[in-house]
Amino acid sequence: MSEIVLAKSPNSVYRVSFTENSLALTPREIVQEKPLNRFDDPKQEYRVLYASTSRPGAMVETLQDLRPSLAALNALQRVMQNDIGYAVSEPKRSSVSDPWILQRYSGKIVSERPLKLVDLSNQRTITALREPLADVALRRGMTDISAASFMGSDRQFTTAASRVLFEMAERYDGVYFQSALGAPYTNVGFFEDLQSDGGLRAPLALDESSRQIGRDDPDLRDALERLDLTLSDDGIELSKGSERAIDDYHEFAR
């Protein structure tokens, strides 16, 4: 019978946060109001602290939501291919403003012992989870469970997997998983310890003081380039001609 496999314990992990305390869990009142993240508790009893195994990975994970939506990209592509009466210049890349950057800190986190992180990309782990996750997988219309199942967008499945692992007698520290953005990024999710007052199961500590992210941060610049984003003082924008044309296209296409 297959057994759950632990990932090799990373020497350190990295997190981008809103405060200087990169180990602070999101307040419960906020957790209860926002959509569930990938391995959050579906019952919202325990919280999960997310981090990346590399500092560039932490930057990419934080910035990815600032990319244009697929709907916006599709509308823009249609505008560029249809003559509806406006001259449309090539749109600027979506940009990130100084206030967004200066509101965030980067921290390096270490553990006092080897971490017990379930490797969700390991074949033995996936096989071991087929039985306890069979019911939710079938209800979600899945025919089987694979590594892709834990990288997909079905939050009802991934949060159910989190709950199953959290409740196991082994008291795992959390999960180790591939980023949905692809290689080379890997992430971790640390389980809250409900037996402590807002602490985690893993004995984590900041290896160095969290520092405010600056415009010239090389990892920030690398993440922006990888996500096709740029820096700007004006926030996310499209060229005005393109923006007006997109609005008119939606009216035209109705």
Low-confidence segments: 234-254
What distance lies between the first and last C-alpha atoms, to the nearest angstrom? 56 Å
Q: How many separate domains make up the residues?
A: 1
**Radius of gyration over all CA atoms, rounded:** 21 Å
Explain the overall architecture:
By secondary structure, the chain is an alpha+beta fold. It has one domain. Helix content is 31%, strand content 16%. The chain contains nine helices and ten strands. The strands form three sheets. Strands 1, 4, 8 and 9 form a four-stranded antiparallel β-sheet that branches. It has a four-stranded mixed β-sheet with strand order 2-7-6-5. A two-stranded parallel sheet has the order 3-10. A hairpin with a 7-residue loop joins strand 6 and strand 7. The model is unreliable at 234-254 (pLDDT under 50).
Question: Tags for this entry?
Answer:
alpha+beta, 9 helices, globular, about 250 residues, four-stranded antiparallel sheet, disordered C terminus, four-stranded mixed sheet
Task: Write a brief caption for the model.
This protein is α+β, with helices and mostly antiparallel strands.
Ordered list of secondary-structure elements with their pairings:
Blueprint: E1 13-17, H1 28-31, E2 48-52, H2 55-63, H3 70-81, E3 95-96, H4 98-102, E4 105-111, E5 117-119, H5 123-130, H6 134-139, H7 155-167, E6 174-178, E7 186-191, E8 204-206, E9 211-212, H8 218-226, E10 230-231, H9 240-253
Parallel strand pairs: 3-10, 5-6
Antiparallel strand pairs: 1-4, 2-7, 4-8, 4-9, 6-7
Helix pairs in contact: 2-8, 3-9
